[in-house]
Amino acid sequence: MSEQRPPTPIPTSSPAAPAPAPAAAASAAAAAAPEPSAALTGRERGGTPSGLLEVTDLTVRFGDTVVVDRIGFGLDAGGRLGLIGESGSGKSITALAVLGLLPDGAAATGSIRFDGRELLGRSDRELSRIRGDRIAMVFQEPLTALNPLWRVGRQIGEPLRLHRGLSRRAAAAAAVELAAKVGLPDPERLVRAYPHQLSGGQRQRVGIAIALACRPALLIADEPTTALDVSVQADVLALLTRLVHEAGTALLYITHDLAVVASVARKLAVMRGGRLVETGPTETVLRSARHPYTRRLLAAAHRTSWTGPTGGPAPELVGRPAVEPAGDLAARPVDGRPERTSKAGA
Ligand SMILES: Nc1ncnc2c1ncn2[C@@H]1O[C@H](COP(=O)(O)OP(=O)(O)O)[C@@H](O)[C@H]1O
Ligand SMILES: [Mg+2]
Prior knowledge:
There is one protein chain. With about 350 residues, the chain is α/β, with parallel strands linked by helices. The chain has a single domain (about 55-305), classed as P-loop containing nucleotide triphosphate hydrolases (Rossmann fold), CATH 3.40.50. It contains 13 helices and ten strands. Strands 6-7-8-3-9-10 form a six-stranded mixed beta sheet, with helices on both faces. The longest helix is centred in the last third of the chain and has 18 residues, at about 230-245. The two termini are about 25 Å apart. Magnesium ion binds near residues 91, 92 and 222. Adenosine-5'-diphosphate binds near residues 62, 67, 87, 88 and 103. InterPro entries: AAA+_ATPase (IPR003593), ABC_Ni/Peptide_Import (IPR050388), ABC_transporter-like_ATP-bd (IPR003439), ABC_transporter-like_CS (IPR017871), P-loop_NTPase (IPR027417). It holds the Pfam family ABC_tran.
C-alpha cells in the first residue's frame, strides 16, 4: 500500500473538524441536553462487577471553565467503547484525565476507577507505572507522539525496558517482533530508522506497536487515523481493531467520525460541550438516536463517503446493526502481507 513507499514527506493534511451545526440545531440540542449526564454506568451495563474502567461524575475544569461536565461511562475487560463528539467537546481531555496526563491548569474531580482502584488523586509516580503498561494510548499525531531523536526500535522497546525490565538487547529483539506484528515492512531495517524517515501510516503503526508493547488491559485511541493519509486510514484502523481483539485489550476509541466508530465499537458515548448526551449499544444509538445532536451526527455520517476498513464494514453500516469486525479481520494479514507473528488469529 502507499504507506510502504520509501520515506515520504511529513503529511500536513489534517482533516478539519466536522462542520459546525446550524445555530438552530445546535441550540435545540443544547435545550434538550439536561439529562444529568447520560451516564453509561455499571448499572446500565448490567451491573457487571468486572468493569475494567469505571468513570463516574468526572468533571474537568480550567479555572472556572468546565470542559468536562459530570460524565460517566464504563468499559469491561476486552470491551470497546466509542467516544464520539465534535471538535472541542471534551473527548481528548477525558482521555488525558484517565491517563493522568491533564495539562497544567486542569483540575479533575469525580472518580476514575481502573481495575478496581481509584486513579484520580494518585501521584504522577504511581500513574506512570500504569501508563504504557496497563493503560496505553495511541495519539492523533504520530509524529509529535514520537521522539524525533530516537530510532523507532528503541521507542518501541522502551516500555518493555521501563515496565518489564528487559535488557537493551532483549528490548531491541522484541521491537523487531512488534514492528513485524504491526505490519511494518522489513522490520529489521525499519527499527533503525528515525520517525522522520517513515510515512505517516508507518509512524502510526510505530505508535500502535509502542502502545501495545506491554499488552495493556486498556488502549485509548484518540483519533488515531484522523491525521493520516486517507489511503491508509482504513488499514491502520483494521490493524488496531485486529490487534486489540487478539490481545483481549479493551478499547476506548475516540473520534468525531460516527461511521468509523460504528465499525469499531460495541457501545457509544456521544459527547457534546463537555457532557454525555447519549450512550448505549452502538446498534441502538444508530437505530434510534434520541438526542438531536446524535441525529445530526448520523445525518452527517450518511453524507460522508468513508469506505470502511479493509474488507470490513462498508459505508452503509450507519443505520444498520454495527458489525463486529474483529472476527473476520483477525484472520486477515495486514495489507496482504504475511503475518510475521506466531499468534494465531482468533
Ligand atoms: N490546555 C488547555 N487550556 C484551556 N482549555 C483547554 C486546554 N485544552 C483543552 N481545552 C479546552 O477543553 C475543551 C475540550 O477540549 P478537547 O478535549 O481537546 O476536545 P476534543 O478532543 O473533543 O476536540 C475545549 O473547549 C478546549 O478549548
Ligand atoms: Mg481531541
